[in-house]
Amino acid sequence: MNLYTQLSNVNSRLGLVGSSADDAVIRAIQAASRMIDDAAQRNFFVTSATRYFDSWGAASLIVPDLLVATEVACDYDGDGVYETVLVQGTDCHLLPHNSYPKWLMISAGEKALPNGLRSVRVAGTWGYAETADPFVATSVTATVATTNGTTLTATPGTSVVRGDTIRVGDEQMYVTAVAASTVTVRRAVNGTTASTHSGATVYVVRAPESIEHLCELVAARCYSAEDGRETTSERIGNYSVSYATGGASQTTGLTTAELGALSKYVVHEVR
After folding, report:
1. Which residues contact 118 (CB under 8 A, 6 or more apart)?
2. Kindly report the CA angle at 129 between 178 and 42, in degrees rounded to 5?
3. Domain segments of the chain as ranges
4. Mind listing the pLDDT tens digit for each residue in 7-42?
5. 129, 60 Cβ separation under 8 angstroms
């Protein structure tokens, strides 16, 4: 799940017609998406989670990509109780101010952040996106009467396809199949909680355009490699490069050019 390009994009690039190769192409997109995550040292999907951080009494704290913080709480006396809730804008700020994701928390008052292991707790939504909420509303609505049902009854539309991560209410789901008004899903993914839904708007999320395009390219090579068309391979540094019949290269890692395309998204130790 959490695929960074659509099945139809890769099928079109590979010249595939029909659905017989869809399972293999989905696997290729999954592999390509995780390669991108690994190389960038960040995720391009949204996760709901509560995370804990060590803090050493400084005025600032570096955090992973953060979109929305629903709570920032501190344990100043080391007893495991987060008795001090920081009010954003008054007690602390999340930076940068005018863009996403946030990655730096600073104390806004005279009091520093706590000093100790797991002394700061942050609940919220995490991941790389260029807005606080990258999910976009579609014209499709969905209904499911239970919290464990894997079939949504949806209004017809082409906005939701196999391989999408969707959000209905606050619950994220991974779409495994679409047939007319029936959408088959994996429930409560990415740290969200399953709930019932009735005629609720379906939201979809897409990776940034350049990441989507990169994933399409890498997935096409992954599919070709799985399909057995490569003839030989060699290692260049940490990357494995395979060569297909006719001289076109296939890779099981990112090429130098792809790493260059990804470079602006790569997380470095000092930001």
Report:
1. 52, 53, 54, 75
2. 95
3. 47-126, 135-205, 209-265
4. 999 999 999 999 999 999 999 999 999 999 999 999
5. no
